[in-house]
Design a protein that fits this description.
Chain lengths: 108, 295
């Protein structure tokens, strides 16, 4: 993977692909992506899959999007998962998602 | 502090071996060992002993039993929060007639009382609680002892639940349900599609958690947290190990499609996907879970 970009391998990291996809799909006003794969390096499912050696399997996400307005948590998470469907197909294993609307974080 | 005192006697003997002549400071330290050993393990519950004035005056960390306010025990788990502290301390349980039934100590008074309320609703009508700020075991034991002694002194009786041999109030080890299996085995041809088995399972059971690993030994941190939250809520739930290739072969892929949810764990309530670990956690933090499980 990542042969297209040649020298610009970093540009093709899963994290940056995720950023683009989420930004496009959800018009997020806040988008934090944190790779926490190392915390899960030892766990059973990860050891079983050799493709996951190079990490980028577990992420913490914080997304603030006006599109979450009026949506249940399940729906919000589904919207995130839908945007990242390809990644989930190709080795992205788990996301920890905080999905909020601009209003919900407003008072801060 | 107590741990330091406990440790020092261990060190002193070796010191004494090397310098037996300079033993001036060691006796005072090693003196703690027998004194301490006498203090708490040997509380006798026989009424006779109470006539004896309390020789070891350790100021109790809690108010006396009679001074403590009696609080009715709420019937529902979600009402207990706020009414009873989830702190370390002692508690005295009274039945409907105001008879003291049991004095216990706990690291989480609210949880312990809730457990009693569930297993012994008729005996667990109201409680008195005394929070012990000092988390030290000796202080806790002392508080328990002071309540016991006060009651014995006043009535001449040991609370029935505290009589030796009475196991009514002893916490039963939580019986862990076995995880559910969807199929009889990998090599058995299914007559019903897996998808339909999932559908039936989540609709016939109020709460189902699809987790990685078994409920007694979850293999992933998120599944572990989910099990913890469900146990904490006292929810009667079914669990299914999605990593069990023998009895749940193919479940992961099928379930992902069934629920339109790409990750595990997944929690279903009344046939509907409630969400994964994040959603369960966030609902717990907002105090929304009890309502969901009650319906």
């Amino acid at each position: 993977m990542g042969s297209r970009g040649g020298a610009k391998v970093l540009q093709l990291s899963r994290a940056s692909r995720m950023r683009t996809k989420l930004q496009t799909a959800l018009e997020a006003s806040v988008l934090e992506i944190e790779d926490v794969s190392h915390q899960h390096a030892g766990h059973a499912a990860m050891r079983a899959n050799a493709n996951n050696k190079d990490g980028e399997t577990h992420f913490n996400l914080k997304v603030v999007s006006p599109k979450f307005e009026g949506q249940s948590l399940v729906k919000r998470h589904r919207m995130v998962y839908d945007a990242l469907a390809d990644e989930l197909q190709s080795g992205l294993h788990a996301l920890s998602i905080v999905a909020k609307t601009p209003q919900e974080i407003g008072p801060k | 502090m107590a741990t330091i005192i406990q440790l020092s006697p261990i060190h002193t003997p070796s010191l004494r071996i090397f310098s037996s002549h300079s033993s001036q400071n060691t006796p005072s330290l090693s003196f703690y060992l027998p004194a301490k050993a006498l203090t708490f393990p040997s509380i006798s519950l026989k009424p006779y002993t109470t006539a004896k004035p309390r020789a070891l005056v350790v100021t109790s960390a809690v108010k006396s039993l009679s001074e403590t306010e009696l609080v009715p025990v709420p019937a529902e788990a979600d009402e207990i929060a706020g009414k009873l502290p989830a702190d370390t301390g002692v508690y005295a349980v009274f039945d409907q007639n105001g008879e003291l039934q049991f004095v216990g100590l706990s690291r989480n008074i609210a949880a312990s009382v809730l457990t009693h309320r569930k297993s012994l609703p008729e005996l667990c009508y109201s409680v008195k609680v005394g929070v012990v700020d000092e988390p030290d075991r000796a202080v806790l034991t002392q508080s328990w002892k002071s309540w016991m002694e006060e009651h014995i002194k006043a009535t001449g009786k040991v609370p029935p639940g505290n009589e030796s041999g009475n196991a009514t109030w002893v916490r039963q080890p939580p019986r862990k349900k076995p995880d559910l299996r969807l199929t009889p085995g990998r090599h058995v041809q299914l007559t019903v599609p897996l998808e339909e088995l999932i559908d039936r399972l989540v609709k016939e059971n109020k709460v189902v958690a699809f987790i990685k690993g078994s409920r007694s030994a979850p293999l992933c941190g998120f599944s572990q947290r989910v099990v913890g939250i469900l146990e904490n809520q006292g929810v009667d739930y079914e669990s299914v190990d999605v990593l069990d290739e023998e009895y749940n072969s193919g479940l992961r892929e099928t379930l992902k499609k069934y629920s339109n949810w790409p990750t595990f764990p997944q929690i279903f309530v009344n046939g509907e996907l409630l969400g994964g670990c994040d959603i369960l956690t966030s609902m717990q933090e907002k105090g929304e879970l009890a309502g969901v499980f009650k319906k």
